[in-house]
Amino acid sequence: LVPTGNGGQATYRLYLLQAGKEGQTTTVYLSLRAPLGGTPAVSEDSLVLPLHNGALVRQYLTGDKANGPDWRSRFADEDAESHARWLGGQDFLVTDGSRALKRLHWPEAARFETVAVAEVPNRIIKAPLLLPAEGGEEQRVCVADAGNLVTLWRARGLSKLRQWALDGEITAGPFLRAGKIGCVLDRRRLVWLDPGRDTRLDR
């Protein structure tokens, strides 16, 4: 993401590399009015970009652009980040820079709606982890917060499945390996969680 001058107003240019056939790549240049303010979601036809100014922008790969709802909570710190995730189809998951997680249905450029909202006890500190729907399981989402809690939600309606209280600061994760959820505590301890169990795997 590179800032460029534009008549006294900064324009931020996002460089997107698209993989093509036989290892070829195509560079797409996207101009934004503010720098990124978190983690973008990448779908089949677009990117959903949380910008630092609180705007949520859907940038289509065709070059078209659409404005969505503001992502920033009034409780969010000035330097808070938002994280967006694609859930498949025209559905996206967006955090609000504080404690809320929102499922957004965005079927058309100018039409969107928030279809589910959930809150965790403390500020969300990492990008949500999506657990794919496979083996008869529904799509789920895992969120870590500043109180060292990891919460697992059903992605469709954002209803809570289970929650784990960890005995250390979550400094990396959550991430998925072989169907299990991993987190690093205090930069040195690795713990594993089973999405189907209420207790840690090492206990």
Features:
203 residues; mainly beta; five-stranded mixed beta sheet; four-stranded antiparallel beta sheet; 19 strands; disordered N terminus
Structural summary, described in words:
This protein is mostly beta strands and 203 residues long. Helix content is 0%, strand content 52%. The model is unreliable at 1-8 (pLDDT under 50).
What is the gist of this entry?
The protein is mainly beta and 203 residues long.
User: Using only CA atoms, what is the Rg?
Assistant: 18 Å
First-to-last CA distance: 44 Å
Overall helicity = under 10%
**Helical segment tally?**
0
Strand order of the largest sheet: 4-9-10-11-12
- Characterize the biggest β-sheet: 5 strands, mixed
Task: List SSEs in N-to-C order.
Answer: EEEEEEEEEEEEEEEEEEE
Number of strands: 19
Secondary structure category: mainly beta
Low-confidence stretches: 1-8
Shape verdict: globular
Mean pLDDT comes to 89
